[in-house]
Design goal:
The chain is mostly helical and 219 residues long. Helices cover 74% and strands 0% of the residues. It contains eight helices and no strands. It has helices spanning 6-34, 40-68, 73-77, 79-86, 94-105, 113-140, 151-162, 175-214. The radius of gyration is 21 Å and the shape is globular.
């Protein structure tokens, strides 16, 4: 896409505000879910922050759709953006995109490709794990026969799910909790594959370079 296009300019102007909005959304949602003893007014404020930030995400999505000039093709070419619009707990992952954009504005990224993949995947795991733990806890802790009854249980479950270990000592029992579980399993496999592939490629590159250094001159 042309760097001077209206859509590119819009994305550059909204990178930081939307990243801040994503963190505000996650913070307000966390307080709303975890702080059961908050006064009703405070819970209403958290809910208002959630709705206002989500409205900002919706406006950004509609503006980018309009500026793209792609019509219905925009939805096919931006499937992930559409999914995230309806699953706003994924929005904090914009921090990864923001970090990359800031690095590039100062020239070439400071970290090599393999290190960046591992860094982004690690940050994504932390944000996704915390968001997933919140969502599953909200769906499960009051359900009949639930095994996830505290936020600590939910964090333990999220960690074992993203690590693709799945001990099975705590499991979701509600349809919403199981839907979130399937999504987190898929994300865990994808992130694990990205880190493993990047690390393997880095090792192959190191061994290849060492092999070249050991060759006799002129060979």
């Amino acid at each position: 896409m042309d760097d001077d296009s209206p859509m590119t300019r819009w994305e550059h102007r909204t990178e930081v505000p939307l990243a801040v909005g994503s963190l505000l959304f996650l913070s307000a949602y966390a307080v709303h879910v975890l702080a059961h003893q908050l006064p009703e007014v405070a819970r209403d404020i958290c809910f208002s922050v959630i709705m206002v930030t989500w409205a900002a995400f919706l406006v950004d999505y509609l503006v980018r759709w309009r500026l793209s000039g792609q019509g219905r093709r925009f939805f096919r070419h931006h499937v992930l953006d559409t999914v995230v619009l309806f699953l706003p707990l994924m929005r904090p992952l914009r921090v990864v995109k923001l970090y990359d954009a800031v690095q590039r504005r100062h020239g070439e990224p400071r970290l090599p490709l393999y290190a960046r993949v591992i860094f982004y995947a690690s940050l994504s795991v932390l944000l996704l794990g915390f968001s997933g733990a919140l969502a599953v806890y909200q769906a499960e802790y009051q359900a009949p026969h639930a095994t996830i009854v505290t936020f600590g249980d939910s964090v333990w479950w999220a960690a074992s799910t993203l690590a693709t270990v799945g001990y099975g000592d705590v499991t979701p029992v509600t349809p919403m909790g199981r839907t979130i579980a399937v999504a987190m399993m898929a994300c865990g496999l994808g992130l694990l594959g990205a880190v493993t592939g990047s690390f393997s490629s880095w090792l192959l590159q190191v061994f290849s370079r060492e092999g070249d250094d050991e060759r006799p001159p002129g060979s």
